[in-house]
Amino acid sequence: MSSNQKIVNAVAEYLDHISKVLPDDVVKALTRLRAEEKNKAALSVYDTMFRNMELAEELGKPLCQDTGIVQFKVVCGQDHPAIGEIGESLKEAVIKATKEAPLRPNCIETFDEINTGDNTGTGAPTIWWDIEPGRSDLEIYVYLAGGGCSLPGIAKVFMPGQGYEVIAPFAAERVTEMGLNACPPLFVGVGIGNSIETAAMNSKLALMRDIDSSNDNPNVAALEKELEEKLNYIGIGPQGLGGSSSVMGVNIVNTVRHPATLAVAVSFGCWCHRRGVISFDKDLNYSSKTHTKFAK
Ligand code: SF4
């Protein structure tokens, strides 16, 4: 089998899997929130979510009807033998998974208003690239971005004189304004940078990090905790019906700012946070550290 076909088959199989099975850290976070929940109505919503997860696996059906737009972040070692074929392989994998999983076709060509029918199209699937010198492995971060959750994020550039204190109210406002449409409990990704696009990208990368992880900078890690506590205090509860918590966690990814700018972006993952990473060695053996049930 050609290396192209190996990647196509593995990624299509992985897309199928993550549309039906949540990553280990999300299951762990939902289990913790359900154990801590005091509100009876909220407990019954959590029970429904866990039943939903069981049925998705048992029946081989997607966890949610909105299987999203497929987004990839490729971290490719410069010496990986398949480096030139990855982009085309990912596109073919999306077409294959759309047919076989199946995934709902969600790509509308803008202005033409035509659903392409296979989740590809102009600029789709989304692929962000990092080429890593001195490495020969390949990691593909996969995200099924739903129309109610991570796609309608928001970004704004503040004046640095307003201080880092602007981040918490900005995130809290967005959670109360947009969070209910995103099927809570939410996973909140906050991106900090110098411009709208760096902050927005950082907020997406924050959603690709494990829920249990912390930012390496202790000041930022403290802000992650503070935001989590403040957002939980609002008590949005599962599906927005009220409860002991609002979020599974808050991750922040930050890069430098310009002396005159402080850009902040917020993206949400929903309870059905379908993201994962599939890793290949140079011989294209693969595994997933986010989904232990995807054993090869
Ligand atoms: S927010 Fe998540 S669970 Fe709710 S409809 Fe969208 S993808 Fe499905």
Strand residue percentage? 15-25%
Strand count:
11
Bound molecules: iron/sulfur cluster
The major beta sheet can be summarized as: 5 strands, mixed
In terms of per-residue confidence, which ranges show pLDDT below 50 for 5 or more consecutive residues? Answer: none
Q: Please list the strands of the largest sheet in the order they lie side by side.
A: 4-1-5-10-11
Order of helices and strands: HHHEHEEEEEHEHHEEEE
Radius of gyration: 19 Å
Number of domains: 2
The overall pLDDT average reads 95
Termini separation: 17 Å
**How many individual helices?**
7
Helix fraction? 25-40%
What overall geometry do the principal axes of the alpha carbons give?
globular
Summing up helix and strand content along with how strands pair, one would put the structural category as alpha+beta
Could you provide a short overview of the structure?
This protein has 296 residues and is an alpha+beta fold. It has 2 domains: 3-21 and 63-146 and 274-287, 60s Ribosomal Protein L30, Chain: A (2-Layer Sandwich), CATH 3.30.1330; 148-269, no CATH class.
Give the helices and strands, then pairings.
Layout: H1 3-20, H2 24-36, H3 40-59, E1 69-77, H4 86-100, E2 108-109, E3 114-115, E4 126-132, E5 138-145, E6 154-158, H5 167-178, E7 186-193, H6 196-208, H7 218-234, E8 247-254, E9 262-269, E10 275-280, E11 286-287
Parallel strand pairs: 1-4, 7-8
Antiparallel strand pairs: 1-5, 2-3, 5-10, 6-9, 7-9, 10-11
Bound molecules: iron/sulfur cluster (SF4).
The site of iron/sulfur cluster (SF4) has 9 residues, from loops.
